[in-house]
Structures are given as structure tokens and as C-alpha cells.
Amino acid sequence: MVAAAAPAPVFDYDIVVIGGGPGGSTAAALARQRQLRVLVIEKEKFPRFHIGESLLPMGNAILRESGVWPKIEAMGAVRKYGALFFSANGVAEKEIVFADGLVPGLDYTYQVERAHFDQLLLTHARELGAEVREETRATAADAIPGGFRIQLSGAEGERTVTAAFVLDASGRENLVKTAQQRTLDPSPFPKRFAVYSHFRGVRRPTGRAAGHTIAVRLDNGWFWVIPITPEITSVGLVTTAEAIRRAGARPEEVFAQAVAASSKLRELMDGTTAIMPYHITNDYSYFRRELGTDRLLRVGDAGGFFDPIFSSGVYMTISGAKLAVELVSRALAEKRGLTSAELSRYTHTVKGHAGTFQKLIAAFYDNDSFAVFMSSGKRWGIEKAIVSVVGGHARQTWPMWWRFKVFLAVCWLQRRGVHVAPPVDYQTSVLNPHRALPAA
Ligand SMILES: Cc1cc2nc3c(=O)[nH]c(=O)nc-3n(C[C@H](O)[C@H](O)[C@H](O)COP(=O)(O)OP(=O)(O)OC[C@H]3O[C@@H](n4cnc5c(N)ncnc54)[C@H](O)[C@@H]3O)c2cc1C
After folding, report:
1. What residues make up the domain containing 329?
2. 314-325 pLDDT tens trace
């Protein structure tokens, strides 16, 4: 006699998504397109402020696939065709135009006010049939046979739900406790610090460059200048926690002093007003060693994030969401958990993309490599490949791979004193204690 197979456990949902940011809502939308039963848990009431306002064109295809792209195009957001990089005195200047990249089809994207953008994405997931609970916090996720039990706390009190899979897209806070949560990869970067606000009256370039992200490089840090509406611009200073400590002033004061010390920033910022209190984000670089188990995947910042300089965060979280949903929906169809091969594919893909950005980020922060980045070498399409990486093409296809390697090799030569590119003069910077401030 053949023993009857144990009945498959019955769960409330196929997938519980923790966090309704771009990673969580994109995962929910893609899962609903596959008819999966999805619950999204979000602790805040949207719209809510969030930093991370500059998108990358490489993400457009995923937003198209989730069906939300036409709604984004209709939002009236600022179109972003590229980026401008300056030294603090404005003498060194480089424009990146996405359409000039090696990879076709990455011509433009948008700068967004995240409060509206995130709400649009979450509403889209809801419209596709995802159950969305705002003002509800996931307080625990415990593995049970064949799935997860998730504890929720919200206006409706305490509640427990079960699901075959959890996608943890809870961002940097990453509150859900699991055994693996705290094990991090060794950080490739020092502890950095960002202080930022929204401003009115920031001067903008004209024409297509009006929607560019502007990055102004100081001696020991940089500013972002991101036009998020026709009137409002997001401006932030990034430096090391150590530089802020040495400056011995409040972060807002260091921000103002750094603007005053840079002729490029004065040109952009003179006469502007902050329209909200300054925000501070400290020590934001990390990557978790494990990005999941057989029933849980960490998506986006819940898995890791390196640095805002190349605006990779939203792209990384939505591309992680896409891959996570593809793997989970296949496992659901085959009534099983994720295999170790699937888990390592997820981890390698996410960390592989992060690794490309990591190398470009490291080059940006190194003065010699930054000089190479700022110079215009037209040979062999190297610059075109860098433009495509800046547009978000972090996948190392062969034509991209060897050109990126050559770029890194040239940076290496420059660091060793072979002057391939002219050095960049960073001008006086309050972040460099060895150089004097200009007279007021
Ligand atoms: C200073 C700075 C500047 C940046 N600039 C850029 C940029 O210009 N462009 C860019 O692409 N990226 C940028 N980023 C990165 C970007 O902000 C993130 O990578 C992106 O928001 C990640 O999206 P996510 O969906 O993974 O997480 P999030 O957007 O953080 O969403 C997570 C959601 O989960 C919710 N949540 C958390 N815990 C729980 C819980 N226990 N229960 C229920 N809900 C929960 C939160 O409320 C939140 O809404 C920047 C980051 C920093 C630090």
C-alpha cells in the first residue's frame, strides 16, 4: 500500500511583502501579474518623505513590465537625460548624456519626489489586486514548515498571518529579526554621513540639462543637486562622519560652510531657502552576507546599499524585486522552497550589480580616479561604457566588461603616478582642515 502524501500546508498568502517602498510595491505588482496572493505590510501612511529621488534609465524597463510606467510618465516629474559633474570651483566639468552610452535605449528617466512616486507605485500594486496594509508594522517573521508566520501590529491591533514566502523589502531599518539579519559583508567604504533638505530658488542649467543631477565634488565629500519639481530642488552634502566630527559644528552649519567655500555651489545656491528641516542619514553603507533562505528573500536596501553618488538605490531594489518574484513564482508553481542554486543566483546577481556600482563609487571618491572619470577619453568606447554604467547598466556583458576593466586600469595607473588625466583642483573646502576658508 502507498502512503498518502502529506497535504501541502494552506497559507493565508503566497507572498507577504514587508515594506511598501519601490522594492516592495514593484514586487507586489509583478507578483499580482502572475495571479499570486499578495499582502504588502507598510508601517507608514503614504505619502511620506523618503530620500532617493533620482532614478536611472536602466530601471524603466522593469517599471514598464510592472505596468506603472505610463502612470510615471503622466506624473509631470522632471525628465532626467543625464548628469553634470563639477569640481568645487566649477573649473572641471563633465556632462554625462545617457543617450550617448554604449547600451542603446537608456535615453532618459525621471527625478521624482519620493512621497508621490512611492505612493503611485503602492497604489498601482493595490489596483492590480495586492492587499496593502499601511500603518501596520511587521514585528516578527518566523519560519514554519513550508512557509513563514508574520506578526503584525497596527491600528487593528496585533495579528498573525502566514505565507509560503516572505519578501523583506523593509529598507535600511530592516526590523524583521531573523538569525541571519546581522551578519554583514566587510564594508568597502568608511562611515559616511549625508545632510540634506529641499530648497526653492536653486539655479538650474538651461535646455535638456535642466533636469540633470548635478554632483559637485569637494576635497572630502560632494553635494548632490537634484531638481525634483519645476521649483523644488533636493540638495545634500555627503562626507565622512569623521570630517563632520573634525569640523566641530552642527551638520547644517557644515552644509552652509561647504556651500560658502565652493564657487560652483555659491553660483547654484545663493539666495535659496530650505523648505523643510534638514535630514541626516549616517552610516548607510552595508551589505548583508546572506540575502535569503529557502522561503525568504531580502529585496533592495533590506539586503544592502552602498552610496547615493550614482543614484543606484531605486534601480537596485526594483531589479532585485523582479528577480525575487521570478524565482518565488517558479518555486510556488512547483510547490517547493527555493533551491540553494536559486538562492546563490539571486545573491550573485544582486551583489554582482552592486559590485559594479561599488567600483565606480570607489573611483569617484579617489582623487586620482576621479580625475580620470572627469577627463574625456573617446578611445575604444570606454567613455560610452562608463556612461551606460552611470545609466544603471551594471550587468557586465563582454563589451561593457572589458571597457570597464580598461577604465579601472587607467585609474590604477593614475594612482601610481602615471598622469593619464590632468589632476582636478578641488578649491578651498571646509572639509579639508589643511586649507583656509575664503574671506567672507
Ligand atoms: C542620502 C541618500 C541619498 C540617496 N539618493 C538616492 C538617489 O538619488 N537615487 C536612488 O535611486 N537611490 C538613492 N538612495 C537610495 C534609496 O533611498 C534606496 O536605495 C531606496 O529607497 C530603497 O528602496 P526599498 O524599497 O528597498 O526601501 P525603502 O524605500 O526604504 O522602503 C522600505 C519601506 O519599508 C517600510 N518598513 C520598514 N520596516 C517595516 C516593518 N517592520 N513593517 C512594515 N513596513 C516597514 C518603510 O516604512 C518603508 O516605506 C539614497 C540613499 C541615501 C541614504
Report:
1. 13-77+112-183+287-338
2. 999 999 999 999
57 lines ligand 1 (CB under 6 A): no
Same domain, 37 and 135: yes
Task: Report which of residues 244 and 11 the model is more confident about.
Answer: 11
Q: How confident is the model at residue 183, as a pLDDT?
A: 78
Centroid of ligand 1 to alpha carbon of 194 (angstroms) = 14
Q: How many domains does the chain contain in total?
A: 2
pLDDT confidence of 439, banded at 50, 70, 90? very low
CA distance 311 to 111: 10
Do 28 and 71 sit in the same domain of this protein? yes
pLDDT digits (tens, 9 = 90+) for 14-27: 999 999 999 999 99
Asked whether residue 319 falls in the same domain as residue 392, the answer is: no
How far is the centre of ligand 1, averaged over its atoms, from the C-alpha of 48 (Å)?
Answer: 11
What is the grid cell recorded at 342?
A: 536559486
CB of 138 closer than 6 A to ligand 1?
yes
Residues 122 and 32 in one domain: yes
One domain, residues 319 and 384: no
Which atom of ligand 1 is closest in space to residue 175's alpha carbon? 41
Has this prediction a pTM greater than 0.90? yes
CA distance 310 to 327: 28
DSSP string covering 123-186, please? HHHHHTT-EEE-SEEEEEEEEETTEEEEEEEETTEEEEEEEEEEEE--TTT-----TTTT-BPP
67-118: pLDDT as tens digits: 999 999 999 999 999 999 999 989 889 999 999 999 888 999 999 999 999 9
**CB 92 less than 6 A from any atom of ligand 1:** no
C-beta of 19 in contact with ligand 1 (< 6 A) = yes
